[in-house]
Amino acid sequence: MMPLQVLLGVGLAFLCFCLMLGCALCWRKRKHQSTTNSKDPASERIVMDPSLPLPGSASTPIKQQYEEVRGLVLEHPPGALPDLDPDSGYRHGPHGRASLPFIPAVQKASLTSRTKRILERRCTVSGDCSVYNQCGIYPTPGIMPAGPGLGHSLTTPDDLAGAKSKPRPALHFTLFYSPYEVTLTVSVLGISNLPKKFGTGCDSYVRVYLLPRFMEPQQTSIRRKSLNPEFWESFHFSGYTLEEIKCFTLRFATYVKEFHNLKDTFIGEVLFACEQGDWQPDSPSAYTRELTTTKTKLKKCLSSQDVVGPSGSTGQTKLLGQLFILLQYQTLANRIKVMVRKAESLARLTRMPGSPDHYVIINLYQDGKLLSTKETKTSSGYNPVWNAPFLFDVPSGDIESLQLSLEFIVMQSRIYTRSGVLGRVVIGSNASETGRTHWREMSSRGHVESARWHTIQPDTL
Known about the structure:
Blueprint lengths: L1 H42 L18 H9 L34 H22 L4 E3 L2 E3 L19 H4 L8 E9 L4 E10 L10 E9 L2 E6 L10 E9 L3 H4 L3 E9 L7 E9 L11 E6 L13 H4 L7 H6 L1 E9 L4 E10 L12 E10 L2 E7 L3 E2 L4 E9 L10 E10 L6 E9 L4 H12 L5 E6 L6
Antiparallel strand pairs: 1-2, 3-4, 3-10, 4-7, 5-6, 5-8, 8-9, 11-12, 11-19, 12-16, 13-14, 13-15, 13-17, 17-18
């Protein structure tokens, strides 16, 4: 058994040795063949005599052939060197030992026409004003040539000269002040040339501020799928004389709604000083201003005395504070959306230490009859924030002829005392000038919210 295994091992080793030997012989043979093939072209290379002319060419002198190629006419006998004009464009160059092949006249004409087409194409693309003819290349009159035969144009190419700057976004609006109603009317007409990066599905809107009085903005409705949206919406600011209006500044901030962003994208703003306006007594004035990318930083904490109310208000009404209210009339549903946002600088009813709690009671009346009542939650402090929305159903019909009104009663309460009425705000047909203006805005603007500050009036009941 053992000798058989030894024989098999010896046979396998001999077989491997034969295979390796065969591989080595094949590699050596291929290497020899490749070396032989690489030496064949060198051995068959033909060394030409420089003194002999090329096959198929005439024994023409080198200088004469150069002149024929350049298109010059030989007026001297072959073999003689002419006196060349230094302005002819000819320059002596180094001569080689090899002869230049003869170019027939047909080939020269073909070369000339081909060169002409190439130069004409170059003149069309780059704006070069060089003109080519059969005798050579000459520049246009009035332009100095850059070389012996080629002229370069110093003019700007047509495609660059006719390029226009990219149009910037612009806001279109009108202003009108009525001395009889003591009201400033700001109408936002539209925006042109919004950035194309937002695409044709761009949704945009504008916020209007009257600084420094109205820091809370009034907003237009959203215009969808347009880079040139048109709004045609008006906003009213009442209770200020024209002299006071000229001390204010209007701010128009433009935003675009994008689905991939949680916040709306700021596009630009327009700051318009009212003192620069052309205040015509009978007609509104139209303006167009480009949007600037800078964003004005507004104060986060607002003072009610600086934000709301004309300067001629009495001291008593200022001491009671201000109430910020948003209204929206939903025509199809026949209801009014009311949001009590916040109040500022509320007065104290007692001298007890500590901060009291405040809440608001909202009553809806029709011809003096109570239709519905809502109430907010309590919020502590003298600058409470509620952000409480409510819905009031109203009878169908024209809301202006229904004799509706909203009453907001601000209540102040403490733990150990009974709640007391701080003051009230009335919005509707039987309210003050500010309340009537806010009601008209809500009725005319449809589904767009109308926001205003209201001065809290003392309770006379």
